[in-house]
Queue: 4 jobs
Job 1
Amino acid sequence: MSEDDDAARRVLPVAEAVASAHAEGRVHGAVSADPRLAPHDAVPGPATDVWALGALLLHATTGQLASTGDVVPRRAGWLAPVIELALRPDPAERPSAEEIAAYLRARIAPPPPVRRRRAGAGLVLAGVVAIAALGAVGATLLLTGGGADEPPATAPTTPPATGGTSPGPERQPAAAPSTEPPTAAELERFARDYVTLASADPDRGYALLTRDYQARSPRYRDVWAAISEPEILALAAEPETLSVRYTYRYALPGGVRRTEDITLQLVQRGERLLIAGATARQR
């Protein structure tokens, strides 16, 4: 058993107990007097408990003591993404305790006691579980690159937009005409088309990122594969800065639904628009 698997197995009962307490309206956490620890948590709440779970997982896998906003070392293994989210400085950007428990449970739950299966079936099941687990901790990792030891974003970080109606898989996001600066309507159309394209075919959505942003988005395909039923609720573009802001709702495996505020930072390459960065904030 790997070190991260062992840490997850030990912390899972704690995460489940905390999630159960939150469901009943109870909170365990208290704000530390140490200013390095969760400095934005002015009042104890569920997010404070989540920070503590992230700190526990970080210490169990790396021996490192946590402070809010830490870069999580790669040696934390597959737990690095969820630890990183749990230690976010803004409590509103952290996942819930139930989402952390679901992430751990999906990886370490013992396989059902069935008879022999074909080897390929186990691999397929593992892939589905991995996608569901990534979805459970939110699409934010997709938009900001996620993971440890990755270079910081130089362009404003932002998440992808979603559309209400799904165009056919052959439909591409609209390009800006000629080399003229795109209008607000063209930027909004690009965002709508991009979201529906990425949710239908993550590979083609990935092709609409700049090379630099592709390098900062290693989990792009996994996250988009877990997103379905995207719906844009509000949308606004700023041609002067080549940015699009929108609020969208989408579904994740297991019936989980999320609503997020997104900003896409675009660049123009001849007649094409590409995504240079994105930021996301969960509602």
Job 2
Amino acid sequence: MICIAVVDDEKAVCDELLFFLKEYEMKFKMIFDISIYYNGENLLADLEDDIHFDLILLDIELAKINGVEVGRHIREINQDYLCQIIYISSKMGYAMELFQVHPFHFLMKPIQRETLFSCLGEYLRLYSKKDFFELTNKNVKKRIPI
């Protein structure tokens, strides 16, 4: 099972991504545990409560705390470099800021099914077939490839 968070302040975008993810599950016989967030604050709160995601589809332009700041928090405060982030935006001007967060991919809005499917396929090829040893130390979850 792959735990995925979808974070976007537009309900229509979340609904569309959820639809595409469900379609991908059916087509490729996958099991996703999908959580929807309409802001970065709720995602960060759940991460602080030791909820872990393998993959986050993260909008950059959110209301209070933007997606770049959320990504920085995940990498620097939570020290989570295993969770992969796919940024989503309707603007291309974030490239340099995103480098600091080490995103897995960047998708332009409106999201195209084929582009998302390709991105998910690449993620699965790189990360899903590895076995990991997981441990938690001081509320920080670590996964070490075996």
Job 3
Amino acid sequence: MSDSTESGNDIIDGRAAFHRALTAALDEAATSGAQQLWLCDPDFADWPLAQAPVLDALGRWAHSQRRLTLLAADYTVLGTRFARWLEWRRQWSHIVRCLLVHEEEAPSVPSLLFVPGFTAVRLHDRDRHRGRIHRAATELAPCHQLLDALSQRAEESFPVTTLGL
């Protein structure tokens, strides 16, 4: 199988293609001035969140009137393996919201980057990193509905700092 994104039909086939698609979507969000971003995954283990191009795109996108929402079933990996992303998050904590889905909802958490009104990068097969890039309104609406439903049943989690005694 190919490890590239086919530009003609926006197929994601492979881990490298998934990472390129995520980075491109974040670049597009920064360039277009998108007001909101959603990052959704069971644990973000396969996301390139600590890589310089991703952090650069997030930095160009970030603005005080924007909102980044993360939705996950578990934040352990994010908290232990992505120090550079955690540092970025501390700087922009006022625009970042982290939601934790309830345990019974965990199996329905997709791997999805969603930029409302612009694009969605979604893996339909996480094991093989296969998915699609969606741009049409008819493709974006179900992504938005899914995230909305999951977020309504989720709770705030993953604080920026943990206080100890």
Job 4
Amino acid sequence: MNKPAILLIDENSILAKLKDGNQAAFKYFYDKYSLQLYRKLVQMVHEESIAEELLQDLFVKIWEKRSLVDPQQSFKAYLYKIAERIVYDHFRKLTREARLKGEFSAISSELYSHTEENIFKREAEAKIHAAIEKLPHQQKQVFTLCKIEGKSYEEVSKILGISVVTINTHITRATKTIKAHLKSNDSMAYILALSAAIHALPK
């Protein structure tokens, strides 16, 4: 009796397809490595919302720099190397923002009542929603469906007829645009926005 044939996936050929811009190849690697990379990022930054954002940044970089992929090298090692760089850049950015946060170091829970804190949070949320309204049309659609309505990337892909890669790009760019808007218009709102994950906004 013959043994059942074993289907062997040639990752080198899939990497070559990714390098050529094949979205199915990109999805293959996203599905295979995203969860373990996410867990590693959570261990490194100790915050799930930040890890989620960094994971998006990582795969956007993979897609944008796909021409640099070497099919002969370990792609998993390549992913982890990029993840380490992204985490390093994240903490370096936090260091640069220390001065901004220092302006409000005296603000503590003892200085504000629960009601006052809720007022600040509502004001920050209103400013975030105002920033969302200023996004380009498709970025706004994608951000609202994913982050406000809580739909998955796959669901939004079917609704809007665009790829998961495009959705990743829109989410990353929209998030950066919103944070930049808050930072330039209201320091307090920016601090609050940083302390609360944007994807946790009320639906």
